[in-house]
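Re: that backbone. Tokens:
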């Protein structure tokens, strides 16, 4: 199997469409958050919380992703790769790999290599409200996997081999987090590659969605425990 060369020829048009879809969905997310902020200010006299704006962002991106999938020329289920792996061993292997990653991260965390626990607590972005938990464990995994490992991955994979598809999707996923700084973008790239590999080997976004939710939940738990 060829892992780097394009499949069925290089499709610049299809690549441009894929990039445009992601940009449009993200733009809708910011627009939705802006509308909610404006309405909250006008109606209640104060801006919504960060968690409220984030929820509005994810919901807007999710709605835009569904609409884009519905006009993609494929069924929504196919366009978003809405499926669960048929082989149980794939789920077991990726779950074991994730547990291994958690163990390594825990060892590094408590070794002090990343700084003292007080410093890490001050830097922690874990959400401490119910809405923040919903954003982290439900909305973010569902929406981000649908857009990146679903809509974008599916379209690119029709024309490209595994490695270029995985690289583009991982970078796009990383730059979604650019507002948190370049360091944060770099830090999410390994997770994006791991989720992309799960998408390729499982054939759908069901497994990546579950793994993504577990990753975010682990971050929330660590943030609350520190």
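Recovered sequence:
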């Amino acid at each position: 199997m060829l892992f780097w060369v394009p499949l069925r020829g290089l499709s610049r048009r299809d690549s441009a469409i894929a990039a445009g879809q992601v940009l449009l969905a993200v733009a809708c997310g910011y627009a939705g958050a802006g509308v909610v902020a404006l309405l909250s200010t006008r109606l209640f006299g104060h801006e919504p919380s960060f968690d409220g704006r984030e929820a509005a962002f994810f919901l807007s991106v999710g709605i835009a992703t569904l609409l884009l999938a519905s006009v993609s020329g494929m069924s929504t289920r196919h366009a978003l790769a809405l499926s669960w792996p048929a082989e149980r061993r794939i789920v077991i292997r990726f779950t074991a790999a994730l547990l291994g990653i958690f163990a390594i991260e825990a060892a590094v965390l408590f070794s002090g290599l990343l700084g003292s626990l007080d410093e890490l607590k001050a830097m922690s972005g874990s959400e401490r409200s119910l809405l923040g938990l919903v954003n982290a464990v439900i909305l973010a995994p569902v929406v981000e996997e649908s857009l990146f490992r679903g809509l974008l991955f599916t379209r690119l994979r029709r024309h490209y081999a595994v490695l270029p598809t995985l690289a583009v999707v991982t970078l796009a996923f990383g730059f979604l987090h650019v507002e948190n700084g370049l360091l944060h973008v770099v830090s999410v790239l390994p997770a994006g590659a791991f989720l992309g590999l799960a998408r390729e080997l499982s054939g759908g976004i069901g497994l990546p969605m579950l793994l993504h939710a577990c990753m975010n939940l682990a971050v929330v738990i660590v943030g609350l425990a520190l």
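The chain has one domain: 12-225. The two ends are 46 Å apart (CA to CA).
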